[in-house]
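Working notes for the structural subgroup meeting. M.R. asked for a predicted model of this chain before we commit to crystallization trials. I am recording the input and output together here so anyone reviewing the notebook later can reproduce the run.

Input as submitted:
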Amino acid sequence: MMRWAVCVWVLTTVAVLSTGWRRHSKDGARTRLATGAATGLVGGATGLTGPLAVLLHLSGRDGAERTRANIAVFLSLLSVLMPPLRVLSEVLGPLQASIGLALLPGYALTTAVRQALFRPGNERFFRVVAHVAVAAAGVAGMPVRQ
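Returned structure, recorded in token form:
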């Protein structure tokens, strides 16, 4: 049930952000701490770790270049920190690790393509692509059973 709630919240937030709405508050220590805590809680309960922090940055008033950099740092740190935590919780074993390693070249290639395509001056294009990516994560995260 929580996974459904997070997915619906993510899709609703993306819909609101797509209208052009942005927060007018600054991201102080309290906002970042609360977002980090919510991201950890939701991520631990549902496995959806990225959308909350990404949406925080997308809802701010920073330009595309800074927003993208903040999101990249967050997701990179998450990628480094999660595998050891998964090993400790016995969720990540040799099979899962080998699958993850097999996916790395494709991930590296698409990262290079994304970096080559990024144009800091094209704010609207960046926001559209970011909103579509987060919406896709919201849909992909839905616990639909076949």
